[in-house]
């Protein structure tokens, strides 16, 4: 069924509502429609009344189910007017048995000739139950008003005795304005007795004080209710005994004891590594250096790089310089508006960056950025492909497209060659390190030239495992945390062997294992998305730098790593010195790092933890 629509509005200035039994006919709309039945109810428009307040006369908005445009009956051409008047006469003939009801007779008193409208060829009565001021004062005036309104269509039954007459005006309380009419039940009157009908006053200047007095009384009762509610809540809280266990002392003591034992074991391993560094270093013949030559002085070999893109100069530099320009920080505001998410990505082809799907899934797609010191400022990227339903143990990749005007970045080479005990390096922007980086905080605060430095850790591949889902992963000892997700795990030749994705953490045992998806799954994902890559093969054999002997001649100047890999008995393991990567010329100077307290794990039980990005506050993100 179609809904009623607005037809017109009648201003009550100069009009008086017709009353029956002391109540306005307009307020008895529901009873009128019940009286005449659904077939005739469409003849009368539905009123929405706004009564005046003494200074404003008020108005009535009329609604009806109508398809065409309404036009006053008097404005129609003669031929069409005759058709509409004929249909109106048929409606009145159908209502003739009910004309003795005072409510119907009073409703047929209209505000003026323009109250009868035509919608297509159907008559519609508006302005019913209203009369000009003084029009119903005497029978002669009433009859003249009815003839002026209806003309030739005046029903004879309205002229007969029993037509409603005007009652004496009397003050009436002002009903509150309402968007829809409120049905008012009008007492039934016997058909044989004609009830007097009159207009009532629209408003009075003497009742203006009712509104402020009513508001004041409501505020007093509202305040009293709040006060009583507060008293009841205070009494209940005071009667309760609030006791909570702050911590389990025995469990804390047990964890402290285990952590001390772990620390003692680490101290023994560190001392063993330092003693091993003081002895002779085994250097394989043929290329004059150990496989663990520090990455900041290890030159990149052409065989470890993919083909140089057309129009782009071939990369020349060290392994750490290659990682600095090819690894990017992925960040953007979370789609739910609750913070900022961060992660890591790396270039795999001209203009294309790979990261984890769980890094970009919660971000606002229109405000996802990547940045590193080579780019110089955050640039907006487009997510062109991603694996569905990312979770630990399933494929978790996303492909991002850089804008065409972005600075060209050399891609990293990809290889499937990876075995246990192979030395590896993890590159990324972990939150554990970024939270004390002044440039990182300044970047989140809106300084687009403040770019944090890439963080790298080294370790060994512990195993190559096939999960039940079919995904191949590699647990390794290079430390990663939240923010490393999507970053590259490379061998000492700079070839990507895996993508850091999730970690295993056992708070009770103090165990932490980092997991990377093996490159096989990434190569398959890129192939499915038509990304052309060159797969690199063969073992990793870094070329010795020209300055390697000089660097080896001064072991005292090389700081020992904080957490070196465990040394095998009888075989010394050289460590990588932590030398910072060179900063770009356009990078802003780093601010003093703020004091940050370490974050406790969310649960003590062991479990698989995806390194999902997220920051606790919503800083200003450059647009």
Beta fraction: 15-25%
Name of the CATH architecture of the largest domain? Beta Barrel
Oligomeric state of this protein: single chain
Distance between the termini: 49 Å
The number of strands is 27
Total individual domains: 4
Helical segment tally?
A: 14
Radius of gyration: 43 Å
At the fold tier of CATH, the topology name of the largest domain is Thrombin, subunit H
| CATH class designation of the largest domain | Mainly Beta
Helix content: 10-25%
User: Could you list the spans in which at least 5 consecutive residues all have pLDDT below 50?
Assistant: 161-203, 285-291, 547-623
> What's the shape?
elongated
For the sheet with most strands, the description reads: 8 strands, antiparallel
Mean pLDDT: 78
List keywords for this structure.
about 20% strand; 27 strands; elongated; 4 domains; eight-stranded antiparallel beta sheet; about 625 residues; alpha+beta; single chain; seven-stranded antiparallel beta sheet
